[in-house]
Amino acid sequence: MKRSSQKVVVFIAAAIVCASAIQNPVKKANAQSASLSSGSTGIEYSAHLGAAAGTMMGTPIATSPAMGGGLDLGFGVGWEQFRLELGAMGRGFGLTDTYDGQGAMMFGVHTDLRLPLEPFFPNLDLESAEPYLLGGLKGSLLFSGSQEGAMATGIGGGFRLGAGLDWRVADVSVGFRGVFSGQRYAQLVNPDVPSQLGAFSLSAYVSYHF
Q1: To 5 degrees, how large is the angle CA 3–CA 6–CA 7?
Q2: I need a surface site. Which of 39, 78, 179, 205 has the fewest CB within 10 A?
Q3: In whole angstroms, what is the distance from residue 95 CA to residue 150 CA?
Q4: Sign of the C-alpha dihedral, residues 23, 29, 32, 36?
Q5: Is 164 a residue whose pLDDT tops 80?
Q6: Which candidate, 154, 157, 153, 155, places its Cα nearest to that of 101?
Q7: How high is the pLDDT of residue 65?
């Protein structure tokens, strides 16, 4: 009886060892697949619509600050550490001094790299708030307005630098950002006149995340 009991114990121990050896690779495979799954679903998309107000100044369009505003549209693709945004904007400015007009309109596109600040400051406890920095490139077409109508004044490209703050609830967020942009234009009216433009805008926007 003792020998038979010993054989049963040995058999049970061997069965446990084999089951454990088989189960461990399964657990590792499941963990790897879960990691891949979480990585693939870690991409987040968003779209936003915003209103902006700001000022611009530059030769030869506005030799003193010109106030104006407009709309912003954008689409974003985000990961945990950064987000890429592609946007379009339209602005209208009232000019008090200009070489050939009474106002200006600007239409452009831009692409930005957005870096949230919270991962760099792990001690921050911001809950649903997300401060960030952004920087990118832009291109736009500028129209000057006069009593005879609007005409294309220049086309060019430049840079964007800014910072902002988002408050998010579920799939919707409300945000504010300030952006400075500098741009150099190729003059379409007078190619011999150099044109450089600086603009600063404050915008409020609503984003939907999906």
Answers
A1: 90
A2: 39
A3: 13
A4: negative
A5: yes
A6: 153
A7: 84
Q: Residues with Cβ < 8 Å from 46, sequence gap 6 or more?
A: 75, 76, 78, 83, 173, 207, 208, 209, 210
Q: Are 195 and 184 in contact (CB under 8 A)?
A: yes
Measured CA to CA, the distance from residue 11 to residue 9 in angstroms comes to 5
d(CA 82, CA 22): 40
Cis amide prior to 191 (ω within 30 degrees): no
HSE (side-chain half, CA atoms, 13 Å) at 84? 3
The neighbour count for residue 10, using CB atoms within 10 Å, is 10
Q: Are 82 and 113 in contact (CB under 8 A)?
A: yes
Q: What is the token pair recorded at 31?
A: 């963990």
- What pLDDT is stored for residue 24 in this prediction? 46
- Helix, coil or strand: residue 193: coil
Report how far residue 205's alpha carbon sits from residue 16's, in angstroms, rounded to the nearest whole number: 60
Please state, in angstroms and rounded to a whole number, the distance separating the CA atoms of residues 155 and 185: 5
**56-100 pLDDT, tens digit each:** 888 767 777 889 999 999 999 999 889 999 999 999 988 655 545
97-122 pLDDT, tens per residue? 554 556 788 999 999 999 998 877 77
